[in-house]
Amino acid sequence: MSPVIPLLLVLGLATVGWLVARARARIFRRARPGGRLDSRPQYHAWFVALCAGLPAGLFALAWSAFSPGLVVMRVLQAPAAAALPAEGILRDAILAEAGALATRHATGAFHPLARTLVPAFEQAIAHYAQVGLAVTLLLGFATGTWAFLRLRPDFRARTQVERMIMAALLLASLAAILTTFGIFASLLAETWRFFRFVPPGDFLFGNHWSPDPMADVGPVATDSYGALPLFWGTFAIGVVIAMLVAIPLGLMSAIHLTQYASPALRRWVKPMLEMLAGVPTVVYGYFAALTVAPAVRRLGEALGLANPSSESALAAGLVMGIMIIPFVSSMADDAIAAVPAEMRDGSLALGATRFETIHRVLIPAALPGIVAGIMLAISRAIGETMIVVMAAGATARLTANPFESMTTVTFQIVAMLTGEGSFDHPATLSAFALGMVLFLVTLALNFVALRVVLRFRQAYD
Amino acid sequence: MTTYHELDPVEAKIAARDVSVFYGDQQALDRVSIDIGTEYVTAFIGPSGCGKSTLLRTFNRMNDTIANARVEGEVRLDGVDIYRSDLDVVQLRARVGMVFQKPNPFPKSIYENVAYGPRIHGLAVNRTELDAIVERSLRRAGLWDEVKDRLSDSGTALSGGQQQRLCIARAIAVDPEVILMDEPCSALDPIATARIEELIGELKGRYAIVIVTHSMQQAARVSQRTAFFHLGRMVEYGKTSDIFTNPREERTKDYITGRYG
């Protein structure tokens, strides 16, 4: 049910409350000897408007979310519903069709029963729309009146409005956190369903990965859900190869930018480096697939490897490393710049060269920040999808040869979810278990990294 | 007008001639000439922004680390111009040590703080020699008895006064000829300050010491020569006792008596 009309009415109510409250506060002000109120009339106005509008508005939104359920419950009590099949997909499908017909979202139905339910649906929708509207307006009016009656010349409307604003800001910051919990909860439910088919031990430690989305679900299938090759592929590409590229280059560019570059150069290079972080990863993916992967294959041929793959862990890892450079260098840059200048001067004054100062004093002092940056970069790299989809290949294998194709957790999530298997097939569900592992690992990395940064900050404040 | 008390040239460890320093367009020091002797503690006094720290930092070329700082004139150490283009600034700073306003131990152990200089200059061939240098330096800085049982603790965990003495030990460890001190007590409490002043007295004669200070009492207590700076110029330079009891310049007298600054 659309909440638009109730919300517009609530807005109107709040506006009326605003005007009336301001008028009332102005009357208070005129009656006062000094002509001054504790709070300006605008605050009285906002207090009443917010009191009238917020609870009612929230109720209207909640009602639009809950009323469809109520509508279905009412429809099921209608005589026409007796003809419905008892349980299962067909029953749900007929109800959904009838609902679509009643709200004019559809013009025809596959099942004849759906048509017979339309009148019941229409009646129920109209009923709950009226109830919702009435309750919304009554609520708005009640809270608005209550607020209006609280107005006095010495009423501290300013404090109250401040409090409401604070609550709104708190709610906004909670939204992101609650969403994270929501993601976790939904992953948890699907992961649980997957683990009913495949035991967690087989999944986490099995070394054979070849789920068949078309196969019948049976005990035979469980030994093809060993995710170890995926974890290995993710580790090899995102941690080993990418970090071999990103750590030296990122660190050296940070050292150059903080210690050697002239301010003018720094002004140019730093934003350009940070712009690398804004390049869409799909573009890196093209680059990896079309430019780097063939080059890596030619290198493999030149090294005398038989049949080097056109998709390789090395190609994906190299490009991922380049993508990650700005993360490492930006954090390392901040960490090195945060080391007090006296530390550097102390070392220079002892006759240390610039490089001795950097590697014996500045980097050790900045190490926590640098490590934190690397950990954030790793968590970013193992979650990266497009590059590996385009350049790493789909073959799950446990190999130490970087010229061979490997596959990663993220790649398999994409492959399983976009595959042809039904939604409750273990192959599809495995995507959620993989996502859960990825979520937990990156969460842990970020958590540790942030703790390290926090401790580092305290050390120099 | 620049007035300075020129010592016998043979005695001068550091001789500055017409030194001017610019930070960008801003002139911080205007044609200062001064001779620094070996057997004294020399104090630079004057109000904030008078150029005393700037002059100090020309003696070991620490102004080099400040972007767009420019030095004109001549500074000679044992008769050799330290602003010559072929001069190795690393060698210069090994000979001219520095202690800063804020204690700045490295985030390393006490031992490693002191061993840092000897290590980078290769002063010890083995661990025994390095141990000996560390102990001698800490003893001279009057810190040995307080830290000998916890040499592996972090230098930053010491108290402010101990940290500053650690920094002095660190400077002594490379066996410099001159020690520059840039307001070494300004971040310390009176007791720690007294301890540092006492230490300066003990180090006198072994090293040429130049100390920049805000406190005229401190200059009077620790130094034998005092130079008074004002607005980037050196107003007067002479024996500390003369400067404080019988200044030749009106401005010096005003500053000493607390009329400004």
TrEMBL record, chain A:
DNA damage is among the record's keywords: no
Pfam (any one): DUF3708
CDD domains: TM_PBP2
Subcellular location: Cell inner membrane; Cell membrane
Gene Ontology BP terms: phosphate ion transport
Record-linked Gene3D superfamilies: MetI-like
Residue ranges of the TM segments: 6-25, 45-66, 125-149, 169-189, 230-251, 272-293, 313-340, 361-382, 431-454
Keywords: Cell inner membrane, Cell membrane, Membrane, Phosphate transport, Transmembrane, Transmembrane helix, Transport
Single GO MF annotation: phosphate transmembrane transporter activity
PROSITE patterns found in the cross-reference section: ABC_TM1
Membrane topology label: Multi-pass membrane protein
GO cellular component: plasma membrane
Family label: Belongs to the binding-protein-dependent transport system permease family. CysTW subfamily.
Job description of the protein: Part of the binding-protein-dependent transport system for phosphate; probably responsible for the translocation of the substrate across the membrane.
Full protein name: Phosphate transport system permease protein
Annotated organism of origin: Novosphingobium aerophilum
Gene this protein is translated from: pstC
From TrEMBL, chain B:
Gene3D superfamilies: P-loop containing nucleotide triphosphate hydrolases
InterPro entries noted in UniProt: AAA+_ATPase, ABC_transporter-like_ATP-bd, ABC_transporter-like_CS, P-loop_NTPase, PstB-like
Protein's UniProt keywords contain Transcription: no
Pfam families named among the record's database cross-references: ABC_tran
Gene Ontology CC: one annotated term: membrane
GO biological process, alphabetically ordered: phosphate ion transmembrane transport
Keyword terms: ATP-binding, Nucleotide-binding, Phosphate transport, Transport
Signal peptide from the UniProt entry: none
Molecular functions (GO terms): ATP binding; ATP hydrolysis activity; phosphate transmembrane transporter activity
Domain ABC transporter stretches: 14-256
Protein name per Swiss-Prot or TrEMBL: Phosphate ABC transporter ATP-binding protein
